Amino acid sequence: MDTLELIKLAGQGDKKARDLLVTENIGLVWSIVRRFANRGHELDDLFQIGSIGLIKAIDKFDTTFEVKFSTYAVPMITGEIKRFLRDDGMIKVSRSLKETANKVRITREILNNKLGREPTLEEISKEIDIDTEDIVMALESNAEVESLYKTIYQGDGNAIYLIDKLEQSKDESENMIDKFALKEIIASLEPKDQDIIRLRYFCDKTQTDIAKELGISQVQVSRLEKKILKTMREKLV
């Protein structure tokens, strides 16, 4: 049975099909997880986070996308891990508290997907066999103390935020994955939509130029562009 058939069955509530999809894509999760080595977290923990991204990809994938499932799943898995690392907090706390907080986050996501709702504190406590008081303490100690959008400088009418001072880095492998996913999504568009994106973003044409070339109005081009970008965003995110 191929991947698309399994995804259709999983979408219909077939748990065996869903579990099989997860099993078949474990290698994909690990290949992404290894890129986040030496970030202060155990790879097993990141694997569980990545697996949550994989499950979300299975649940949200639309077979009409005309995109390979792996292409859709990669940014979902990567995004889940990045969000986890981003939200990990700025306070340095004891390793035991950090491990408890990480375990709570992972368990919460797993139970959320399993139950189809937000799990209660008691349910999380029972699942990981940790007292609710210890869970609360771990989460509070691991909370972020500064907003990334806190203004740290205001001058000439332009605010500089904390996030602007953080080093932004993106390795080549991430760029390759993003470009690959974008290429697949563009290829799945209708020919006319592909032309609009090509002319607008690869040939640097204005909406007026495109309107003349396609024989439609500038307003139509504007509406089509917004619609196409929305479609691409939904497929990519």
From TrEMBL:
GO molecular function, one term: DNA binding
Ranges for domain RNA polymerase sigma-70: 45-58, 206-232
NCBIfam families: PRK05572.1, SigBFG, sigma70-ECF, spore_sigF
Task performed by this protein: Sigma factors are initiation factors that promote the attachment of RNA polymerase to specific initiation sites and are then released.
GO biological process terms on file: DNA-templated transcription initiation; sporulation resulting in formation of a cellular spore
PANTHER family the record matches: RNA POLYMERASE SIGMA FACTOR RPO, RNA POLYMERASE SIGMA-G FACTOR
Organism for this UniProt entry: Mobilisporobacter senegalensis
Keyword Transcription regulation tagged: yes
Name the record gives this protein: RNA polymerase sigma factor
Family annotation (Pfam families): Sigma70_r2 (PF04542), Sigma70_r3 (PF04539), Sigma70_r4 (PF04545)
The keyword Ribonucleoprotein appears for this protein: no
Keyword line: DNA-binding, Sigma factor, Sporulation, Transcription, Transcription regulation
Similarity comment: Belongs to the sigma-70 factor family.
